[in-house]
Design goal:
Elements lengths: L1 H23 L20 H24 L1 H32 L18 H28 L14 H12 L1
Helix pairs in contact: 2-3, 4-5
Length: about 170
């Protein structure tokens, strides 16, 4: 009861201030009415109603799914969460790849498809493993071919070549 009385009092105060502001506002005469371009509505009322109905139906369906199939709903949430985590980790791996590439180390963009995105630790571990086993040996071979093999590897003995090093790197992947 008190709330209704307070609401009525508030409404009366608002109406009084509105009337007072309108009365005290300076009157400005305009020489000629200016034509303002009418802005077209982007959506009709029917469009807005249709959009709202679709969203309400989607939310109702979601609430119904929560009540009737909580396990399936939780599974869907977990799948979405895993996809979001994978996108975030893929972005982080791309940043790490770009950082490594800026150190004059060729980093193929396709390498991101071979990393483990199940967790941050798994992604970092698979990134480092990929670097150690594939990227670094390939870069050494590339730089050796580009600048020549002027400095022999110590302790290699006869018959060793850069190709053997690359082959060893690929064998250790398995």
């Amino acid at each position: 009861m008190e709330e209704k009385n307070m609401e009525q009092e508030n409404m009366e105060v608002v109406e009084q201030t509105t009337v007072e502001e309108a009365d005290s506002a300076p009157q400005v005469e305009t020489a000629a009415p200016q034509e303002e371009p009418l802005q077209e509505k982007k959506y009709t009322d029917e469009d807005v109603n249709r959009i709202i109905q679709k969203r309400l139906a989607r939310e109702r369906k979601k609430e119904e799914m929560k009540r009737e199939h909580p396990d399936e709903y939780m599974k869907q949430l977990d799948e979405r969460e895993a996809k979001i985590l994978e996108r975030e980790l893929r972005y982080e791996a791309g940043r790490m790849r770009a950082e490594a590439e800026s150190k004059d180390c060729i980093q193929p963009e396709g390498m991101l498809d071979y990393l483990d995105y199940s967790s941050e630790e798994a992604m970092k571990e698979s990134f480092e493993k990929f670097q150690k086993l594939i990227i670094y040996p390939l870069n050494r071979a590339y730089l050796g071919a580009k600048y020549g093999n002027s400095t022999p590897k110590i302790g290699t003995g006869s018959g060793w070549s850069r190709d053997d090093e690359i082959k060893d790197a690929f064998r250790s992947i398995k």
